[in-house]
Design a protein that fits this description.
The structure is a single chain. The protein contains seven helices and seven strands, in the order βββαααβαβαβαβα. The protein is α+β, with helices and mostly antiparallel strands. Helix 1 runs antiparallel to helix 3, helix 3 packs antiparallel against helix 7 and helix 4 packs parallel to helix 5. The N and C termini lie close together (7 Å).
Length: 228
């Protein structure tokens, strides 16, 4: 587990280690499937992705549609036990932005560690060498480049121990990645084995789950990574 992923929320007053429950669905979850929220001094509800902010917090399933229900039904006042808290529709966009920034930051960290590489040929080679944990493409990447890498993912699934294809993600356009990653923006990339590479896949899974492009599932279900 990465150092910044350690969850101190269980030590925050009023929140038991195993007492996390979504204020909308009333279902228990883990730090990977729930997002913590707290009230700022001005009463504004803010997301606490690192689960480190002090004070009473409440939890919402890490899905945009669930968060939008919490906002529409004004459930944060009850969850935070404060009548004067405010949570507007912009909160859902703020969470998406923060999750995107978190993923981009982890990509940069993994690149420095040699666990995140870009370039179509390098990515295809890593996939065929069974070194890639996941692939990433710009939303507006050329179809031919994506197809070649997808063919490699499918081919290697036949020789993988579990018979599954490694996951592939498409979150941002090339222009959006330029804003997030600067000179490290890419068209095709992949995460490689290692602590930082695993961190990239973990954050990609959470952003994908939040946006609702896949059913809710345990982190690591497709990648073989520990669910922690």
């Amino acid at each position: 587990m990465l150092l910044e992923d350690k969850d101190p929320a269980g030590d925050i007053e009023g929140e038991a280690v195993n007492g996390r429950m979504c204020i909308v669905t009333r279902q228990s979850g883990t730090p990977e499937t729930l997002i913590r929220f707290v009230a700022a001094p001005d009463g504004r509800v803010v997301p606490d992705l690192k689960k480190q902010l002090p004070g009473r917090g409440c939890w919402v399933s890490a899905e945009r549609t669930v968060l939008e229900k919490a906002i529409a039904k004004k459930l944060f006042a009850r969850g935070l036990k404060k009548a004067d808290v405010t949570a507007g529709p912009e909160l859902a966009d703020e969470v998406d932005r923060l999750l995107s920034q978190q993923l981009a930051g982890m990509m940069n960290m993994a690149r420095k560690a040699g666990q995140f590489i870009s370039g179509a040929s390098k990515v295809e080679q890593a996939v065929r060498g069974m070194a890639a944990l996941a692939t990433f493409h710009a939303v507006d990447a050329a179809a031919d480049g994506v197809r070649k890498i997808d063919q490699a993912r499918k081919a290697m699934s036949f020789v993988a121990d579990d018979g599954k294809e490694i996951p592939s993600f498409r979150f941002f356009t090339e222009a959006e990645m330029g804003g997030l990653l600067g000179q490290n923006a890419f068209i095709h990339a992949c995460a490689l084995a290692g602590q930082a590479g695993e961190g990239v896949v973990k954050r990609a899974n959470m952003l994908e789950r939040y946006r609702g492009t896949v059913p809710v599932r345990a982190v690591g279900a497709e990648t073989g990574l520990p669910t922690q």
